[in-house]
Amino acid sequence: MASVKQFQVTFDRAEPERVARFWCDVLGYVVPPPPEGFATWDDFDRSLPPERRGSAFACVDPSGVGPRLFFQRVPEAKVAKNRLHLDVRVGTGLKGEERLAALEAECARLVPLGAVRVLLLLLLHDDNDSCIVMRDIEGNEFCLD
Q: What are phi and psi of 13, to 5 degrees?
C-alpha cells in the first residue's frame, strides 16, 4: 500500500483570492509563484476565459511542511455550520491561564485582519483547557486551539 506524502485542503468560497490572502496572514503562508510564462497571478488570471477569472487561488506553507490550501469559487452562499474547519494551534503545550493568554493574543491579532470572535469554549474534560471559536472573513468557522 502506498503512503500519502502530501495533501491539500480545499475550501469553497465566494472570493477565493481574498480568503486565501486572509489565511496567508493567519498562518504565515505565502502565495506560490505564478505559472511559468506569467509575471504575476493577475497576468495569468487575465489569460483565462472571463467566466473562470478569479475562480481559484492557493497559498502554501513556505517551509513546505503544512498542506497547500486551495480556495475555489462557488455560486452558493454558506448556509450551515462547516462540516470541516481548521484549528489554528497557538496554545499547544500550554495550560490554564498561560494557554488562555496565548489564545487571546492571537485572537487580538486576527480581528483586525477581518476575523470575528464567536465564543470562548472551556474544555473542562481536558485539564481545563480552552479554545476560541472564530469566523473568517466569509463567516466560516475555525478555532484557535
A: -145, 160
